[in-house]
Amino acid sequence: MAGPSKKAKSDIALTPKRKITFIETWKTQFPWVRCVDDIMFCEVCREYPSIADHNSKLYEGVTGSKRIETLQSHESSKYHLLCIKRKEVTEKGTGPMFVALKKQAENMDDQLKPMFNTAFYVAKQKLPFRSFEGLIELQKKNGIKMPTQYRNDKGCKAFVQAIAEVEKDRVSEELKTSRFFALMGDGSTDISVTEQENVYVRYVKDGLPTTEFIDIMAVKSADANGVLAALLEALHHVDLTDGDIKKKIIACTFDGAKGGVIVKLREWLRHVLISIWCAPHKLELSLLGATKATDLIDIVEKGVDPIYRFYYGSGKRRREVNAISAVIDEDPVYFSALGGWRQDSGHTRL
Hints:
alpha/beta, Nucleotidyltransferase, domain 5, 4 domains, 5-stranded mixed β-sheet, two-stranded antiparallel ribbon, elongated
């Protein structure tokens, strides 16, 4: 018996394979499967992309023939089972137990708000954290409901740190969205006689100029390079990169000394920078320049400065000076530097 002719074989080869389409009854057996615009996919896996296997055919979507074997294999896959479990847990959250827990959490939030406000008040008024517990007891007597936890100085510290982090994130976001900003710094000395730099930024928010405090940075060295390093580190703390700083900073306010922070900052930026002299610093520099013509200031300073440092560097010795001042009914006067005339209040200094 003769086989099929060459023409018949050619017709068979040219006949396209029948495409297996999606069968609606599969949804009964596999409730997670969907087919939209002739693309078959797993709805649950796409709902949780952080868990799902992105290389899975049913995550990407099957556009060709749809086979039940593909669904059966996907149903037992590891990542699909994890997605199913996550969905089950999420859906359980709509039950009465979940609603009760949610309500309890909301009540806790309402009770924590007065504690946050009190902690903010303590920090704003520069009160010791130990005063937090007494303020909470006062509010309790006034009928304000608050949880029994966090009612000590450690709780106050935790609240203040949380508030600080939120404020830091807010300022960081506003600086990133602003086109430009100006940088301001002011030196200070803490109780341990450590040089510090208070860092501020000024930018435009909603069409109005805004000044925000960034950080207090310990200065490793009190020269221009040390202060500049502290300023840049403070800006890094609000998530600004060196590229962001160079792109956005357009002005600054410092002492204006020759070879000072402004000069160093210009060298680092390598672009035009508007600089404004701090008025008290400008007065100080002017007076220092005027006193260079005489040696009398230097002679007096060399005699007074060692005595000052002997007492000021020790808390015990400072208390002794205060005790003697109380006996003779005189207010103690602290020496800072004979050339340190930065403001009118400096007239009380020796």
